[in-house]
Amino acid sequence: MVQIKDFETLLEATRQQQESFQLLFVFAKSALPPEHSEEEAKRFKSGRGGELTPMMCVDKSPDELTNFKALALEAEKVFIDWQMVFTGALPGTVGSPPSKAEIDDALKNMVQAIQFGGDMSGYLIFDKNGDPVRIV
């Protein structure tokens, strides 16, 4: 079993599987809520806190990706202001990738988890540099 420690090992791991995988990406940014306290504003300025807002999502097969930098550059052509990307992997069945409906449902669930503070333990999160992010 491959230990996934960065984006490149994620690509490597999905390419080694018998099943076809589709990688799911939700690009998000953090902002202060409209009605925030002074303490929340201080925390936010120091790089902590805020609300996560999903800005765009996309799915790609592992073969469509070369590295994190290429994904980030592609995303910035559409939405330059993203701060982090939530990444999931959706398996298909042996010989078949996941269906469009399965992909759409999985992306919808990811967006809702981000918007409403749901369980994000199943996602890898990276900042714009490709460094892993841990949300606590």
Question: How does the SSE layout of this entry go?
Answer:
Elements: H1 7-15, E1 19-31, H2 38-45, E2 51-60, H3 68-78, E3 84-94, H4 100-116, E4 124-127
Antiparallel strand pairs: 1-2, 1-3, 3-4
Write up this protein.
This protein has one domain. The chain is of the alpha+beta class and 136 residues long. The radius of gyration is 16 Å and the shape is elongated. The model has no long low-confidence stretch (mean pLDDT 89). It is 33% helix and 28% strand. A 4-stranded antiparallel sheet has the order 2-1-3-4, sandwiched between helices. The chain contains 4 helices and 4 strands; from the N terminus they run αβαβαβαβ.
* Major sheet characteristics: 4 strands, antiparallel
The N- and C-terminal alpha carbons lie at a distance of 26 Å
Number of helices: 4
The number of distinct structural domains comes to 1
Shape: elongated
In total, how many beta strands? 4
Identify the strand order in the major beta sheet: 2-1-3-4
Q: Would you tell me the overall average pLDDT?
A: 89
What would the keywords be for this entry?
elongated; alpha+beta; 136 residues; four-stranded antiparallel β-sheet
